[in-house]
Design a protein that fits this description.
Blueprint (H helix, E strand, L loop, with lengths): L12 H6 L1 H4 L5 H10 L1 E5 L5 H11 L3 E5 L24 H12 L4 E5 L8 H5 L4 E4 L4 H14 L3 E7 L2 E7 L7 H4 L12 H4 L5 H18 L8 E6 L4 E6 L21 H4 L13 E3 L1 H10 L2 E5 L3 H6 L5 E3 L2 H5 L4 H8 L3 E5 L4 H12 L5 E3 L2 H8 L8
Parallel strand pairs: 1-2, 1-4, 2-3, 4-5, 9-13, 10-11, 10-12, 12-13
Antiparallel strand pairs: 5-6, 6-7, 7-8
Helix pairs in contact: 4-5, 4-10
Length: about 400
Amino acid sequence: MLNPDLDSIQLLPEEYERYSRHLILPEVGLAGQKRLKAASVLCVGTGGLGSPLALYLAAAGIGRIGLVDFDVVDASNLQRQIIHGTSWIGKPKVASAQHRLLELNPFLQVDIHETALTSENALTIAQDYDLIIDGTDNFPTRYLVNDTCVLLGKPNVYGSIFRFEGQATVFNHQEGPCYRCLYPEPPPPGLVPSCAEGGVLGILPGVIGVIQATEAVKIILGDAPTLSGRLLLYDAWAMKFRELKLRKNPECPICGPNPTITALIDYQEFCGIPAQPEAPPTLQEGTVQELQQRLQQGNIVLIDVRNPHEYEIAHIPGSTLVPLGDIEQGLGIEKVRELAQNGEVWVHCKSGMRSSKALQLLAEKGIQGTNVKGGILAWSDQIDPTVPRY
């Protein structure tokens, strides 16, 4: 409720004490704190970005917070997803986050939506919230969140992170641009590595998530300038902020004067991602059990296409490192060809995606091989638990 009836909203005596540092700020005051209490915010994702932003929204006194996530807490999340704890590993993220938020501030209403946000449910879930915060990490959902906000007329507080860099802005607010104005088309599938493949500094989502929470609070308070029309870029390694001007695209297919998108679409298809991704028909796959047998029998060449620093963390004994980047540039093709003279080629990466791509490139050069299904993670889970998971 961005324009609430402030006379109808009352703070409890305990809330006056809790929010005292807000109340003495002229820019917030009693009226502003009532606005925060009356507001409702939907957080899409309770991961790296969702963790800090939800915590600070709860601490600030947002009256109703919705959490959308279908994932469970994994040990690898805890390096950056600070809303979760070790005791919650294997349990739903939304339940973990709800528990932590209510522990931080019992005067809240925390709704949980343990589901993936889809074209079928997005409008229904989002319609009852004043603004949406995008804490997701994939392009289909970012376009889905954007289009949902535009169709419902709600602000979209956006953030994204990768390795040491992050960005934040506010879309669809104060007649400003939307996500499609900045990114009319998604990148080709696989071009932008995920954080699981490329890594991310654990502190980085804390900075970007807090910026998102700040923008949400300012939108609710009403008078403060926001990042609408400005893209804030942050380089944690260099410790530098930059800002780019964003303009509304008059030909935007959803927020322009003549929209061609008037309903939610199939965002997996829009981003070029098959509904049920499968290995190409010509790609031969083998399990880690089969790989173990072949290694014991000998006459096999195991190629690891991960990056050198990943190989240093953990590797399968007997494997040879030929990074995917070298294969893509052609430098690794001849090395693999030479190795292939010593036996049948098997290729692995962390989970099976990069090795699949490497095998396709090798096949184009006449080198056939077998993809290790599940990669080194499967090897650690099913064959040798002493190989570290990362």
